[in-house]
Specification:
about 425 residues; alpha/beta; 10 strands
Length: about 425
Amino acid sequence: MQIAGPSEFPVEYLPPLIKNAVLEMQKNTQFPLPLIVSSALSAVSLACQNSIDVQQPIGSVSPCSLFMLLVADSGEGKTPTDNFFTKPIRDFEENQEKKLAEELVQQKTTRSMWGIEHKAIENAMKKNRKKSLATDEAESLEALNVEFENLQKKLVGHLLKEPKQQRQYRLMVNNITPEKLLLDLNENWPSVGLFSNEAGSLFRSGAMRNLGMLNQLWDGAPLSVDRVSSPSFKVNNARLSVSLMVQGQVMENFLAGRGKEARDIGFLARYLVARPLTTKGSRFVDDRTQSWHHLTAFQQRITEILSQDKLEVDQGRQARRVLVLSPDAKYYWIKFRNEIESHLTPGGYYSDVDDFASKVANNLARMAALFHFFEGHQTDISDESHRFAEGVCVWYLNEFKRLLVRSKVKTTDF
């Protein structure tokens, strides 16, 4: 395998809907291509992760979520690019918040009526017990006991009809503690994206304090939260996408302070990392009218996926759709995994990035599922979707090797 240069992203391996939007964005802004791709893939991951999972060919079902890490200095276009690709997500989230505000008024009335009936049943039960204690007549006592049993059944039925608290629909978070992130996943929507296009403060905040927790969320593992002052809870089947855009010096500081821990526990190994060359100094403009046709199509597909997912969940959907690789795609996945494995022996080509290389096949299956689903295909994951994903993952594998080989005590590439 050849190492690609830092700016030579293989855009031909992006599926049409994503590729066209990425190329249109690059034409109109002239921002670095890997930066644009990182934003696009992050948006796709967040939009799709609550709709689908993927069957790993030699493993269990896993999330399709991606963890993206883009290193670029100020002025490279991190914020405007991210805003373009996440706009449909933010708009959808805002619309859901407005609907929730309207529904809360009705919910308050419904809960109030439920509470009145609940209190009435309890009062009737108290009155019944007082009467039973005050009578010695067997016949009257039996009638009161029958009445009490009926009231108990009525109370059980009433409790089963307790109006559920409306869940807040929150898809994107930024500066958040690990505890609050887990609480939101438990009480609100079970799918969220930790997104920041200026992640310097996030790298220094509580959000990055528990790297092991983020690892578990990437794996889709259940998480138990034990608390003393409030009820404990367990987060099951939650999904997390991560998109961090950070300046080079901040990344250097993170690696100097927590780099060893981040590598030892496999935290960085889960990230698709890129450090593109700057395009500053070559971004000349003219008066030609810009077209945003392809980006609009991309945004519409994001909205379509989010709308369908929300509708299905509201209608009682209990499980995500599990995508599997077609026989041809599975063959090429196994071939890819074995080839990477052959380079992990001591002194092997990828032995100095064996942490990332060992997980790249997992990311490949995830990306293939995302590409296939986002393009609207209803069949098993095709060998074409797999081929696209493999080309992208190979680039990220070589980019990780370029930037984060273990032999570098302190990298200067950031």
